[in-house]
Amino acid sequence: MASFQPCLALSLIMALSLSSIHITLAARTLLQTVPAIPSLPKVALPPLPSVPTIPQATLPPLPPTAMPALPAAPTLLTPTLPPLPSTQIPSSLPNPTVPPFRS
C-alpha cells in the first residue's frame, strides 16, 4: 500500500500537467480561429441627477471645562538583586571514544 501512494501522486501530477497543455493549445487555437467581434452601438446615457445641497446645522458652543490636575507619580524603590553564582567551565573536554566497527 505504501508503494502505491507515490505512483498515484505521480500519475495525478502527470495527468494535470498534460491536461493543462491541451487546454492551453485549445485556447490558443480558438483565439486564432475566432473571427473579430463586431463593435456594438453606443448607447446614450441619461444625465446624472444633481446632488441637493444639505443645510449646515449650527451647534451651540460647548461650555469650557477645566482639566483636573494629574496626581503625583509615586516613587518606586528598585530592589537590589543578589549576585549570580559563577560557573566554572572546564578548560578541556573529555575526548569520546567510538567502539570499533565490525564487518
Automatic annotation (TrEMBL):
Top-rank taxon, per record: Eukaryota
| Name of the molecule in the record | Uncharacterized protein
